[in-house]
Structure formats: structure tokens, C-alpha cells
Amino acid sequence: MKSGPGASKTPILGEKVTDCGPAVDLQKSAGCKLVPKAELEEGAALPAYPDCCPVYDCENPDDVVYVSSPKSTKITKSARVPKEGSEEPRALEE
Hey, CA dihedral for 38, 39, 44, 49, is it positive or negative? Predict the structure, then answer.
């Protein structure tokens, strides 16, 4: 938040996003390997972003397969719109 002369009286909220991107599926990506990082000593702090992200070395970047996230299993329910002259829609059971 800015302070001092000319500062806005309305607080400005921000969020720092750190995303390493999609993970490579090493079993399905022939010619790709995870580049090893230096081992951390016990109690040592993790490296800052982006040095904390995994690094991959791939022979052919066009053939990389990424790990897919699980598909949503949430089912949404919607009521049907009744035709003229038909009965009112009934409530869906949970």
C-alpha cells in the first residue's frame, strides 16, 4: 500500500502469484528428464521463486506430455422449462 504525499486513501490490494506451470509427465514424454537440483541441508530455507520450480530437459519439446489435473466430478443440476400446458417443474432431489 502506498503511503506519503499523493497516496490514495483507498487501499489497493494485490496478490503475488507464483506458478511453476504444468508438470511434465516423465513416463509419457520420451526423452524428458528432471534436472536434479542441489540437495538442501536439513533446516535450510527453500530457494525463492522461480528457483524452487522443477526444471525439465527434453530432447523434443514438441512431444512433451503434461500431467493432467483430475477432472471435476461436480454434477450441476438444472430444472427443465415446462412446455405450455404441461405440469410445473418439480424440485430435484439432492
Answer: positive
